[in-house]
Amino acid sequence: MAWYGARTFYRWPGPESRPYEERVVLFRARSLDEAVEPAEREAEEYAGEGGF
Known about the structure:
two-stranded antiparallel sheet; 1 helix; about 40% strand; elongated
């Protein structure tokens, strides 16, 4: 299994001084296609928790 990185951007709601957040998370998978699903799931969960 190899390591794959997913880079995501989240827009902050409201007029804060930080308009967005950038994250990079790592996943172990057998292929890029296999890594996409957990990356999308993690991004959706993170956005929901953060109110993005």
